[in-house]
Design brief:
The complex is a heterodimer of chains A (441) and B (263). Chain A contains 16 helices and no strands. Chain A is an all-alpha fold. Chain A is 58% helix and 0% strand. Chain B has 263 residues and is α/β, with parallel strands linked by helices. Chain B folds into two domains: 128 residues, Rossmann fold (3-Layer(aba) Sandwich), CATH 3.40.50; 123 residues, 3-Layer(aba) Sandwich (Rossmann fold), CATH 3.40.50. In chain B, strands 2-1-3-4 form a four-stranded parallel sheet. In chain B, strands 6-5-7-8 form a four-stranded parallel sheet, with helices on both faces. In chain B, helix 3 packs across helix 11. Chain B is globular, with a radius of gyration of 18 Å. Classes of the chains: A mainly alpha (441), B alpha/beta (263). At the A-B interface, helix 8, helix 11, helix 14, helix 15 and helix 16 of A face helix 2, helix 3, helix 4, helix 5 and helix 6 of B. Chain B: InterPro entries: Cys_rich_dom (IPR004017), HdrC_iron-sulfur_subunit (IPR051460). Chain B: GO terms for molecular function: 4 iron, 4 sulfur cluster binding; metal ion binding; oxidoreductase activity. Chain B: One of its GO terms (cellular component) is plasma membrane. Chain B: Keywords: 4Fe-4S, Iron, Iron-sulfur, Metal-binding, Oxidoreductase.
C-alpha cells in the first residue's frame, strides 16, 4: 500500500506523456502533408537566428511593454521547469524535496523560482488587462472572436492558477517546516510565499499537509494538462518557435522563389532545338499544379508557420491593407491555414489514413480572393512577426494558383499582364518608344 | 537642357567596341511615365556631370517582370527575365544601376537564379558612392534648412535593407531630415507594391497612399523625398488629395541633387 501514490503518480505522468506524444505525432503527420522542401543552406545563420529570435526574443522587444512582460513569463516558465524535474522525481520516488541536499544553492533556486513565479503572475494579469479591459486593437479583430479569444484568456488563467498553486505549495510547506512536521525537511528560501503564511494561522499540521499535498498534486497535474492543451491552442509557439525560426526565410525579404517547374517550361520555349510537338516522356508524371489552392499545395515550412502562429497580431497591426480597412489580415491567413490543415488532418483520421474529398479547400472556403488581392507585398507582416512566420509567401502562392491555374486575376491586372506580354511594359506603350524621353524637352 | 542629355545605348557602344562602367536600367515607369521621366532625366544629368561612363538598353529593354510575378504570373515573369538576361549577357553587362526599387529588387534577387548575375545597385546607393568618391560635390544652398521627410520604398528598405544611402544624401544637402511615425524597417507602404499600382484597391476605409501621406504631413515637411517612381506617384496623389500640392513637393532623391547642383 505504501507505494500506491508513487504508482498513481507514475500512471498520471505516463498518461500525460503518451497523450502528448500522440498529438506530437499527429502534428508532424499534418505538417508532412505539405510539400517537402530541402533546407540545408546557411546552417550557421539558421542556428544564429534560432538563438537570437526564439531563445533571445530579439523581435519581441521591438514593442517594449509586451516584449518585456513576455520575457518575464518566458524566463519564468523555463526556469520554473527545473522545479518540475524535482517534483517529478519526488512523485516517482516518494521523496520530498529531493534536491534539498544542495543546501544554499537549493535555497537560491527556490527563491528565484518564487520571484519568477510572482513576476509571471504580474505579467499575466497585465496581459489579461490588455486583452479584456484596455482591449488593444489587435486583439479585437474579427478573426479573434470565439475560440481564439477564449484560447488567449484560457492560457493566462492556466498560467495564473499554476503559479498560485506553486506558491501555495511552498507556503504551506514552509509553515510545516517551521512546525517541525515529520517528512518536511528544512529546505528552501521563500521570499514570496512567506507572505501567504498568515493565511494558514491556527491551522493544524493535518490541514496544512492536506493543503500542501493538494497544491502539489494540482500543480503537477495542471502542468501535464497544459502540456496536452498545447496541441489545441495557439500556445504551441512555445515549442515550435524554435524550429520555425531555424527554417525561417534567410536573405533579402524581397527575394521571392522562382518556380522551378516554370523555369523548365520557359527554357524549353526558348530552346530553338526543342520539338514543340514532342510527346511527353513515358515516365513523366502528372504535370504539377502551379501555386496553392489548398494546404497540401503549401510547403512544410508554411504549414509549420501556421502551427507556430500565436495570433499576437503584430503582422496585422502593421499591414497597410488592414490598417486602411481592407479585409486582408496576415494573421487570419495563418489561422485559416492551420484551421484547414486541422480539418484535413481530422478527415484523414476519420477515414482511416486516407483523405476523402470534402469539397472544400483553403481558397474561397477559408481565404477569400478579396483578401489575397489586397496585399501590397510590402513585407511589413514578415518584419513584424517575432517568430519568422511568412504570411506573404502563402498569399503569393495562392495568387499564382488564381492566375496560372484559373486565369482569375482582376481585369486590371490582366490588362497589365497583357501589356507586358505584348509590348514589354505594364502600360500600352510601344517598346520602340522606350528611349523617347531622351529627346523630350 | 533636355536635348543636351548624353544617353548612349549599349548597342551604339558595342558597335564602337566600348564597354560602359555601368548599365542604367531605366525601367518602364522611368521610360514612359511623365512624372518618372523627370527622375530619369535628373539622374542622367548627374551621371553626365560626373562623367560616368554608362549606357541604357533603350528599345532593347523590357519590363523586368516584377508586377507579373507579384500578381502571381510566374510564367510571364520568367519569360521577361530570361529575355532580358539574354540581352544583358550578350552585352557582357556586369553592373547595373536603376532608379526603380522594383526593378532593383528583381534584377538583384530574382535574376541570378535564372542566369543573370550582375552587381545591382539602386541609384541612391550609386549617388552616395559618387559623392564619397568625390565624383560629385554637393552644396546645400537650395535645400539648406528645409524640412524633408523621406518615404522608404518597401522594395528598397525592408526588402533589401537600404535605409541609409538616401538619408545620407538628404543630410548632405544641409536639409533637416525629419522622420515619419513609421520609418525604416517599419516604414508604411505607399500602396503601390505587389502589382497594386495597376489595379483599383479593394474596398476599405481609405486608400493606403492617403494614410501614408497623412503620416508624412504630420512631420510638416516642405518636401517629401521618395526613391521610387511608384511611391512618387502615390505620394503626389496623396498630397493633391489633401490639397497641399502648392506647399509640399514630392521629389526623388536624384531630383533633389540635380536641383541642388542647378543641373
Amino acid at each position: 500500500m505504501e507505494y500506491i501514490t508513487n504508482i498513481a503518480f507514475a500512471l498520471i505522468l505516463l498518461v500525460g506523456i503518451v497523450f502528448f506524444a500522440r498529438n506530437v505525432k499527429k502534428l508532424i503527420r499534418n505538417i508532412k502533408l505539405g510539400k517537402d522542401v530541402v533546407v540545408n543552406d546557411n546552417k550557421p545563420q539558421r542556428w544564429k537566428n534560432m538563438f537570437k529570435i526564439a531563445l533571445g526574443q530579439t523581435k519581441m522587444v521591438v514593442r517594449p511593454i509586451p516584449g518585456i512582460l513576455h520575457i518575464l513569463v518566458y524566463v519564468g516558465f523555463i526556469v520554473i521547469n527545473l522545479e518540475v524535474l524535482e517534483i517529478v522525481l519526488d512523485g516517482l520516488l516518494g521523496t520530498h524535496r529531493l534536491f534539498a541536499g544542495l543546501g544554499v544553492f537549493y535555497n537560491v533556486l527556490i527563491a528565484s523560482f518564487e520571484i519568477l513565479a510572482f513576476l509571471v503572475i504580474v505579467a499575466v494579469i497585465i496581459f489579461w488587462i490588455r486583452r479584456n479591459i484596455i482591449r488593444i486593437k489587435r486583439f479585437m479583430s474579427p478573426e479573434m472572436k470565439g475560440w481564439p479569444k477564449n484560447d488567449g484568456n484560457m492560457i493566462l488563467y492556466i498560467e495564473l492558477v499554476l503559479m498560485c498553486l506553486f506558491l501555495t505549495m511552498n507556503a504551506s510547506d514552509f509553515q510545516l517546516q517551521q512546525m517541525g512536521a515529520a517528512h518536511y525537511v528544512q529546505a528552501g528560501s521563500f521570499p514570496i510565499s512567506q507572505f501567504l503564511i498568515p493565511l494558514f494561522d491556527g491551522m493544524s499540521a493535518q490541514t496544512l499537509i492536506i493543503i500542501e499535498r493538494s497544491a502539489w498534486w494540482l500543480h503537477i497535474v495542471g502542468i501535464l494538462f497544459f502540456l496536452n492543451y498545447l496541441y489545441y491552442s495557439k500556445h504551441l509557439h512555445i515549442l515550435l518557435a524554435f524550429p520555425n525560426t531555424y527554417f525561417g526565410k534567410i536573405g533579402p525579404k524581397g527575394k521571392f522563389n522562382n518556380l522551378d517547374a516554370v523555369t523548365q517550361e520557359v527554357k524549353l520555349m526558348m530552346d530553338p532545338d526543342a520539338d514543340p510537338y514532342a510527346a511527353p516522356a513515358e515516365d513523366a508524371g502528372e504535370p504539377g499544379k502551379f501555386g496553392a489552392s489548398d494546404v497540401t499545395d503549401l510547403s512544410r515550412i508554411q504549414l509549420l508557420n501556421a502551427y507556430t502562429c500565436t495570433e499576437c497580431g503584430r503582422c496585422t497591426s502593421e499591414c497597410p491593407a488592414n490598417l486602411t480597412g481592407k479585409k486582408l489580415s496576415p494573421r487570419k491567413i495563418m489561422m485559416d491555414t492551420r484551421d484547414r490543415l486541422e480539418e484535413v488532418g481530422k478527415n484523414i483520421d476519420t477515414n482511416k489514413g486516407n483523405f476523402v474529398d470534402d469539397g472544400k479547400q483553403l481558397l474561397d472556403d477559408y481565404i477569400t480572393r478579396e483578401e489575397l488581392w489586397a496585399c501590397t507585398s510590402c513585407n511589413a507582416c514578415t518584419e513584424a512577426c517575432p517568430v519568422s512566420i511568412d504570411p506573404l509567401s502563402i498569399i503569393m502562392d495562392m495568387r499564382q494558383y488564381l492566375v496560372m491555374e484559373q486565369s482569375a486575376a482582376p481585369s486590371d491586372l490582366n490588362n497589365m499582364m497583357g501589356n507586358i506580354e505584348n509590348n514589354g511594359a505594364p502600360w500600352p506603350f510601344n517598346q520602340m518608344d522606350r528611349l523617347n524621353w531622351k529627346d523630350e524637352a | 537642357m533636355g536635348s543636351e542629355l548624353k544617353v548612349p545605348t549599349m548597342a551604339a557602344l558595342f558597335a564602337a567596341g566600348k564597354q560602359p562602367e555601368v548599365l542604367f536600367w531605366v525601367g518602364c515607369a522611368g521610360s514612359f511615365d511623365d512624372r518618372a521621366k523627370k527622375i530619369t532625366k535628373a539622374f542622367v544629368k548627374i551621371l553626365n556631370k560626373a562623367n560616368v561612363s554608362f549606357a541604357v538598353l533603350g528599345t532593347e529593354e523590357s519590363c523586368t517582370g516584377d508586377p507579373a510575378k507579384r500578381a502571381g504570373n510566374e510564367f510571364l515573369f520568367q519569360m521577361q527575365a530570361v529575355t532580358n538576361i539574354e540581352v544583358m549577357n550578350a552585352y557582357g553587362i556586369t553592373k547595373v544601376v536603376t532608379a526603380c526599387p522594383h526593378c532593383f529588387n528583381t534584377l538583384k534577387n530574382e535574376y541570378p537564379g535564372l542566369g543573370g548575375n550582375y552587381e545591382v545597385v539602386h541609384h541612391t546607393e550609386f549617388l552616395k558612392k559618387l559623392l564619397d568618391d568625390g565624383r560629385i560635390t554637393l552644396e546645400g544652398g537650395t535645400f539648406k534648412g528645409k524640412r524633408i521627410t523621406f518615404h522608404d520604398p518597401c522594395y528598397l528598405g525592408r526588402a533589401n535593407g537600404v535605409y541609409e544611402a538616401p538619408r545620407d544624401l538628404i543630410k548632405k544637402l544641409d536639409a533637416e531630415l525629419v522622420e515619419m511615425k513609421n520609418c525604416k524597417s517599419r516604414g508604411l507602404c505607399c500602396g503601390a507594391g505587389g502589382a497594386q499600382m495597376f489595379k483599383e484597391p479593394e474596398k476599405g476605409d481609405k486608400d493606403i497612399n492617403i494614410e501614408r501621406t497623412e503620416q508624412a504631413l504630420d512631420t510638416q515637411p516642405e518636401i517629401i523625398a521618395a526613391a521610387c517612381p511608384f511611391c512618387n506617384t502615390m505620394m503626389t496623389d496623396g498630397v493633391k488629395n489633401k490639397e497641399k500640392e502648392n506647399d509640399i513637393k514630392v521629389m526623388d532623391i536624384a531630383e533633389l541633387i540635380a536641383t541642388a547642383e542647378d543641373l
